[in-house]
Amino acid sequence: MPAKKSTAVTKKSAKVTSESNNEKLKQFIRARGADFLLDKNISSVGIGYKHVDGKPTKELAIQFTVDKKVSLDVLESIDTTEIPKSIVVDGIEFPTDVIERSYSKAFTIVVAEAGSTRKTRIDPIVPGISVANKRISAGTVGCIVFDKEKGTPYILSNWHVLHGPEGKIGDDIVQPGPHDDNRVQLNQIGKLVRSHLGPAGDCALASIEGRSFKQEVFELNVKAEQLGEPDLGDKVIKSGRTTAVTHGIVTRINTMVKIAYGFPVGEQVIGGFEIGPDENNLPGDGEISRGGDSGALWLFKASNGQPSKVAAGLHFAGEGAGDPNEHAIACYAQSVFEKLAITLTPPNPVVTGDTGGAPGYAPGFLGPVVNVPKLFASKLKDAFKLNGSEVIKYTHFSLAQSKSRRFAIWVAWNIDGDKIKKISRRGIKFEFDNRFTQFQVGDELYSNNRLDRGHIARRADIVWGTEAEAKKANKESFFFSNIAPQMDNFNQGSLGGIWGKLEDAVFEEVDVDNLKLSVFGGPVFRSDDRVFKGVKIPREFYKVIVYVTGGVLKAKAFMLTQNLDELEVLDLNEFKVFQVTLAEIAKRCGFSFSPNLKAADTLSEKLQNAPEAVEDRQPIKKLSEIAW
């Protein structure tokens, strides 16, 4: 209910618009705003300039909007009470202002525009284009943001665009929204990661999978780099899915708005600020926002009238049906970013894996073409896709990453033994490839225990080529996408060291043409892998070494088993390395190798009388036991 006016106060002029008075009013609205909104007729309360004869003055006021203005004798019949002429806040008397106005979330009615690029499937993803939960019509990509801790990139939009009353965390998110293109399987862009609906804002995050992104806003060609605090009279601009680029002026600040979100959510109180049309930059139809603009980012305008790089807020509502007063409502950017724990720039920026066109693993490196493993359908569905491909390229190596296990399915790398460089690892940290951070396991697994961060593609194998190439490969080898957990007494021990010496052993034992090798390696994912710190720990790894000798292609395959039966105790010392066939690895891992590799693997003839189960065979205890 509206606050009652105090009779014992020291009156001061409310025309004073000092920063301290603004702060007092801000705290008052935060503390009392929700109480006022219990009145069914009051739709919002905020800070604005008092209106006289329908026009704003320069007098600061506590501004109420009501669904319907009525005479005093009718108040009781519509279950409301009179709003006082003024309210005392911290000893200062401020006038009130009452405006007839209502609000509704901005996606209820989606206006169709034929041929709009914003409403098509776009790669890379950019702010200002169509997006939505697969169950919802369409809204707008606000901006690309990053997790404050991990640096994971996300799409930021509204709760009612990405989540909705019937949604849940993990829902499929599509771009464009289903209203613009109902082929939801084709247009999936990611998953609903987290969301919030309440005083801090109407906001949500979606992951980015299978497509790249750019931060520049569609048709504005600037990217938000800072967060700002809107003030009355500030000029702002947005780029939305429906009304495209529109201009506005901040007309109310520190506003709490009552919005009906439908069953089962009902009415919610959302904090934000109000934007009215800029009379000097009016859109042709007078509308600064329409249905489908939900989630668009409002940017401040610079003194030259151009969009700045400072974000003001996230658009989430407009005038209600039948309301002739054009206006928009936005959540405060700072509030949204704090609530969702996100930033506009990645924390501790790292190399992103975009190596400036480096080809990654080269299939023709040895002369004969040796392609990367071909994933079976179930594995392909689980693989993260970048720009539509599961093959993620780095300098001298490529990999396919499992979304469910968050480790590489396979890593493929080339070794040029004649061009190896001695590059120090000093000062290089293990870091995320921030194109798909959410699908990598980071340091949280390896802290305070005996698990080592083991390179799949050995660092020493890929630091070759020019000095610049070697340094880039050296750094990229430390991405968590190339790391898998290995027990320290395997990774560092003499017996387990056989695994790390396999590549070197080829050069020692075989006359390798041109001193070149190609290698495939990775973990074997088993359904009964032990769980530690919420992560399934692979207990088997494979490695396939491919080379040419005397012009003939050869392939040798190996399997490592780690004893992880006492994982919680981490008191382990049993590691076994077996020589196996490519067919055995392919069957365990869910992919197939190049046909020419099958002919290059001659071990199957020697295993005719060996036990079918790898674990029942004799392990390799020294390199001389390997059949080259």
The percentage of residues in β strands lies in: 25-35%
Low-confidence stretches: 1-17, 349-356, 491-496, 569-573
The total of beta strands comes to 33
Q: What is the CATH superfamily classification of the largest domain?
A: Extracellular Endonuclease, subunit A
The 3D shape can be described as elongated
The number of helical segments is 13
In short:
By secondary structure, this protein is an alpha+beta fold. The chain contains 13 helices and 33 strands.
SSE arrangement:
Layout: H1 19-36, E1 42-52, E2 55-66, E3 86-89, E4 92-100, E5 103-105, E6 130-133, E7 139-140, E8 143-147, E9 153-157, H2 159-162, E10 172-174, H3 184-187, E11 188-198, E12 201-207, E13 226-227, E14 235-240, E15 244-260, E16 267-277, E17 297-301, E18 307-319, E19 328-332, H4 333-340, E20 342-343, E21 374-375, H5 377-382, E22 392-393, E23 397-401, E24 408-416, E25 451-455, H6 459-462, H7 467-476, E26 483-487, H8 488-491, H9 497-500, H10 502-509, E27 516-524, E28 530-532, E29 535-537, E30 540-549, E31 552-562, E32 575-580, H11 582-589, E33 591-592, H12 595-600, H13 603-606
Parallel strand pairs: 2-4, 13-18
Antiparallel strand pairs: 1-2, 1-15, 3-4, 5-18, 6-7, 6-10, 8-9, 8-20, 9-12, 10-11, 11-12, 14-15, 14-17, 15-16, 16-19, 17-18, 18-19, 21-33, 22-23, 23-24, 24-27, 25-26, 27-30, 28-29, 30-31, 31-32
